[in-house]
Fold this sequence. Notes:
The complex is a heterodimer of chains A (275) and B (390). By secondary structure, chain A is of the alpha+beta class. Chain A folds into 3 domains: 6-121, Sufe protein. Chain: A (Alpha-Beta Complex), CATH 3.90.1010; 132-184, BFD-like [2Fe-2S]-binding domain (Arc Repressor Mutant, subunit A, Orthogonal Bundle); 199-273, GMP Synthetase, Chain A, domain 3. Chain A is 45% helix and 19% strand. Chain A has 11 helices and 8 strands. In chain A, strand 2 and strand 3 form a beta hairpin. In chain A, helix 1 crosses helix 2. Chain B has 390 residues and is α/β, with parallel strands linked by helices. Chain B has 2 domains: 16-255, Aspartate Aminotransferase, domain 2; 259-389, Alpha-Beta Complex (Aspartate Aminotransferase, domain 1). Chain B contains 14 helices and 13 strands. Chain B has helices spanning 16-26, 38-57, 71-85, 100-111, 129-134, 158-167, 187-190, 239-258, 260-277, 304-312, 333-337, 342-345, 359-379, 383-389, and strands spanning 4-5, 65-68, 91-95, 115-119, 140-144, 171-175, 194-198, 209-213, 281-283, 294-299, 316-317, 319-320, 348-352. In chain B, the strands form 3 sheets. In chain B, strands 2-8-7-6-5-3-4 form a 7-stranded mixed beta sheet, sandwiched between helices. A 4-stranded antiparallel beta sheet of chain B has the order 9-10-13-12. In chain B, helix 2 runs parallel beside helix 8 (239-258) and helix 9 (260-277) packs parallel to helix 13. The radius of gyration of chain B is 22 Å and the shape is globular. The interface between A and B is medium-sized, with 34 and 30 residues.
Amino acid sequence: MWEYTEKVKDHFLNPRNVGVIEDADGVGEVGSLACGDALKLTFKLDENGKIDDVKFQTFGCASAIASSSALTEMVKGLTIEEASKITNDDIAKYLDDLPKEKMHCSVMGRDALEKAITYYRGEEEKKIDGEIVCECFGVTDREIERAVKENSLRTIEDVTDYVKAGGGCGNCHDRIQEIIDSIIGTDHPVIKKPAKLTNIQKIKLIEETLEREIKPALQKDGGGIELVDVDGNTVIVRLCGNCAACNASQVTLKNYVESKLQELVTPDLIVEEVA
Amino acid sequence: MKTVYVDNNATTRVAPEVVDAMLPYLTERYGNPSSMHSFGGTVGFDIREARARVAALIGASPDEIVFTSCGTESDSAAIWAALNSYPDKKHIVTTRVEHPAIKSLCESLGKKGYRVTFVPVDESGNLDTEYLYRHLTDDTAIVSVMWANNETGVIFPIREIAEQVKARGIVLHSDAVQAAGKIPLNMASDGVDMLSISGHKIHAAKGVGVLYVRKGTKFSPFLIGGHQEHGRRGGTENTASIIGLGKACELAKKSFQKDMPRVKKLRDKLESEILERVPNSFVNGDRDHRLPNTTSIAFEYVEGESILLMMNEFGICASSGSACTSGSLEPSHVLRAMGVPFTAAHGSIRFSLSTYSTDEEIDYIVEKLPPIIERLRSMSPYWKEAQALT
């Protein structure tokens, strides 16, 4: 059970400003059904340029609904300039805090507000330049960098709590760590290849190399590879996807898979394919 | 506010008869069952009686029963026993929908050099048994397949699987934590080598479990220590809980005939009334091959944690396959393995009844739940769109 504050519970059970403003000046939509939460924020300005009416619709957990409701209360009566200064931390503070694992709900609120303001200003919606790091939740390196900087995040877990990146399959954890390191600067130890590998170390390293290096490369061409067994220095694999049907697969296997494994694990390895 | 407890796959109320049976062992009968003096030794006799009652529930012989601390320990003990008994075999076969007690253990073994095959299920949660049989090899040390799924209640064809796995001479374990006490199990004819049971899921106390080990199965203890449990599990017995579990098994054995048909009727009523009252809702999993007490209902376009917390306001206790309730960000691995669409997986709620569930409780849930879903949908940005499409 989450330890929600009374304010979170109140805003969840009695959400303020639910709905959609039809002739809104600002509209911001973030999230998706697949991600498990989504927010649509609409606002209307009065003649003095202050936010006069604001409404939200949220699909999500209690803290997502509470964050959205809180946000609408916070921005009422503000100018666009003032509203644009609201951070995710402000939303969390307004609610007397959120569980750490739920901070992404406050980030979602801030993101929706930003989008609504961009819409109002008639600016081109900022294409989130940068590249997707977390495939599961579609999070870019820019978004991660921003969350790390603004909230002084230190660990991958922190990043997951704030922007969800890394909360799915986990394949992007190394990349997230790199981003954190590049911002906070750390002498994070690099995994060193031991001089002499034991059998288990060798198998592990083969698996890691397949996962991190080889699989992603093959996936670009719609292919895949599966480790079947390791027998001495023979690595037995199965090609799948496009690779399985590809005429050039033997070339891929020898010139790419084998040489990559020889380079990153041990030069003695031979790769063999089973159907 | 009254509590309406429909989360019995998480844990159950300790039966009053069980509490009565346990109390003396928490007060005056505190002797160590291993002692030579009769003050302790007679407690050992009582444990023997409890062991016989557990054995009777699952059609086993008393000396095939090993008491453990929980279902998770039983699962770990079973897997490690097979791996240690066949040190040359490095392959494990299990399913994609196991409880974390098996799933996480196998994933961790996968990182330690074992090869693990996770057998898929279809959209109704039924196991692809052909896939399982195809992946049995001479290197396979153990096959572990749950008897019934904790989230959907879907029952796997263990007898059929046992025939195939045993024909290959491979050890078969089943996590029967959800099945025990709800459907009849008979070790004499069901063919599994090891079976896990948890006390607190069948109205005994927390902190006691059982591992059934078929006579003749190679075994090495997971907890190494004293001679307790014939050397198969070291550590002084959790006397009161074991005695209580014996009582609970005795009650459960009677309950198959008497209570479970009634529980099933209540479950079916809950399910059909909710499906009727709530549009865009459906049952996850094969409705014909299920535990009598479980239903997993998906409510499209709403999120499970919100449903649970709103039900909580009415004292209704259930659980969810949604991501937000577990602290993870992805919905339950069981629903994902079944390919339940995201629109529904995030809003799936599990109701699990027990012999203590009543007609009034079901009526209460049927009254309270539909307005909750309606209210959350009215807040959801997707609901109107979805409505427009239909």
